[in-house]
Amino acid sequence: MPGIYTEKEILGDALTSQKNSTSLFNMYANECVHEDVRQTMLHILSQEHEIQQDVFNVMHKQGYYPTPAAEEKKVQETKQQYSQCVK
């Protein structure tokens, strides 16, 4: 029996789930009072980001998540804009 969902739909759902997970673990880490718990949340957050990147890379490789190349001028403008925020 063929699957109900396509690979693209399954991976899209996985990517959405990972984006939600990283948002939640980030919030949990920000709200921790105890440093040990905070460090655990940050460790999990890092792992969740790695999973998110892996899912994105599979989707991108399969052509399910195309990303257009950025114009060099826009890249430089953005870098300049955000480097001023850090100063």
Order of helices and strands: HHH
Helix content: over 70%
Strand content: under 5%
Number of domains: 1
What are the segments in which pLDDT stays under 50 over at least 5 consecutive residues? none
Report what the structure shows.
With 87 residues, the chain is mainly alpha-helical. The chain has one domain. Helices cover 77% and strands 0% of the residues. The chain is flat, with a radius of gyration of 18 Å. The model has no long low-confidence stretch (mean pLDDT 92).
List the keywords.
single chain; 87 residues; mainly alpha; 3 helices; 77% helix
Short recap of the structure:
With 87 residues, the protein is an all-alpha fold. It has helices at 7-30, 35-62, 72-86.
Summarize the helices and strands and which ones pair or pack:
Elements: H1 7-30, H2 35-62, H3 72-86
Helix pairs in contact: 1-2
